[in-house]
Design goal:
Helix content is 30%, strand content 23%. The radius of gyration is 26 Å and the shape is globular. The structure holds pyridoxal-5'-phosphate. The site of pyridoxal-5'-phosphate (PLP) has 11 residues, from helix 11. It holds the Pfam family Aminotran_4.
């Protein structure tokens, strides 16, 4: 790997910066962390036997064998140097020990150019630009009754995101689609989800992607048999700033604001936190769009110009036309939605491929409607579920198991 050659690189981009006293751990954890690499001065703290105080030492790393005491060298040798088969054994043991919430059935990687069903082998290179610089995009598709729901819509957005992130496709669109279907086929999964990533690829640990050897495609199939939840949830207004439109409209892997916003919601007893845009209009949740039924019985949805264009939300807009024909809904409007209008709505819902349509019964301190799951949210969820099970071939791609 290129990391070895950059070991002696003295710039701030060096993957092994000199340790400072502040980052050093007490002796109990020294054996896990200590690692001297490269030339130059290294600073560390150590407790001298029989003394309670800490002392700071500086050593020139090229002379370290002369300076380190016997105790220190025995501490250093506590870290085992593992063969690749030992690493694999340990990874396997660790994976078995860990109680897994999710079951990973198959993974494709363009790095090894195939599919594996062994979860231990489902890894990606550390020097992949997606891992250390966030230079990657991703997307999903639900697997329902052996069909991929809205695969083509998701793949279209996936490729658009890759273009926006300046990631050259490793294969053409049809090949990517075929690899995704073959990965689900190998997994034998009938219910769950498919997740996939396009990355600038492995190369080095530098900021520029010019050292990446070529873009990479990864995909994973996760089994999930749990039924979609219909229970109403509480949401809060996010205090975490939302991403600017250029980044919010592409599904890139920089989800730190989304993660922090979800954590904020959970800390406040909510399910999701809702972003408002710079003009105070309702934007979206951390991994879902939002919709409202206002007091005039209109279905309102914020427009997609500053947020992610949700595949589920767009499908829901189409399916909702049936409810207009049935008279359950007045009209459908996509545009700016003010917070006051949203909070005063008769119904509010979260919409996304992970939750489908989830009623919201409270936003901050405001009870939505009568505080119960609304009839339109329920009807829309039923329509999506029906669409997933027996919708047209434009939204259901059967997997040839
Ligand atoms: C930020 C954000 N908005 C909206 C959505 C909903 O999109 P979709 O319905 O395509 O899953 C997602 C999906 O993950 C998302 O991450």
């Amino acid at each position: 790997m290129a990391t070895i050659s950059s070991l002696h690189n003295p710039t701030s981009e060096s993957p092994f910066p000199t340790r400072t006293t502040n980052s050093f751990s007490p002796p109990s954890t020294l054996n896990r962390n200590i690692a001297f690499s490269g030339n130059g001065y290294q600073h560390f703290r150590l407790r001298i036997d029989g003394r309670s105080s800490w002392e700071t030492k500086s050593v020139h790393t090229s002379d370290q064998s002369h300076v380190l005491s016997k105790t220190e060298s025995s501490i250093i040798s506590d870290v085992p140097l593992l063969s690749s088969s030992e690493v694999l054994d340990r990874l396997k043991a660790e994976r078995e020990k860990r109680k897994r919430k999710q079951n990973y059935l198959a993974m494709y990687s363009s790095i090894f150019g195939g599919i594996t069903t062994d979860p231990t082998a489902m890894v990606i290179p550390m020097d992949d630009h997606m891992v250390h610089r966030g230079h990657g995009v991703f997307d999903t598709a639900a697997i329902m009754d052996g069909c991929l729901y809205e695969l083509d819509q998701h793949v279209k957005r996936f490729i658009k995101s890759a273009t926006m992130a300046k990631i050259t496709l490793p294969f053409d669109k049809e090949t990517i689609r075929s690899i995704l279907i073959q990965t689900v086929r190998a997994s034998k999964c009938k219910h769950g989800s498919l997740r996939y990533w396009l990355s600038a690829g492995p190369g080095d640990f530098l900021l520029s992607s010019s050292g990446c050897h070529g873009s990479a495609l990864y995909a994973i199939v996760i089994q999930d048999q749990t039924p979609f939840d219909r229970k109403g949830v509480k949401v809060v207004t996010s205090t975490i700033p939302m991403k600017p439109p250029q980044f919010a409209t592409m599904k890139n892997v920089n989800y730190l604001p989304n993660v922090l916003s979800k954590m904020e919601a959970e800390q406040k007893g909510g399910y999701a936190a809702i972003w408002l845009d710079d003009d105070g209009y309702i934007a979206e949740g951390p991994n879902m769009n939002v919709g409202f039924i206002n007091t005039e019985n209109a279905f309102l949805m914020p427009s997609f110009d500053k947020i992610l264009s949700g595949c589920t939300a767009k499908r829901v807009l189409t399916l909702a036309e049936k409810l207009v024909r049935q008279g359950l809904l007045g009209e459908i409007r996509v545009g700016n939605v003010r917070v006051e209008e949203g909070k005063k709505a008769r119904e509010m819902m979260l919409i996304g491929s992970g939750i489908l349509v989830r009623p919201v019964v409270q936003w901050d301190e405001q009870i939505i409607g009568n505080g119960k799951e609304g009839p339109v949210s329920q009807a829309l969820l039923d329509l999506v579920l029906e669409d997933m099970k027996s919708g047209p071939t434009t939204v259901r791609v059967p997997v040839p198991y």
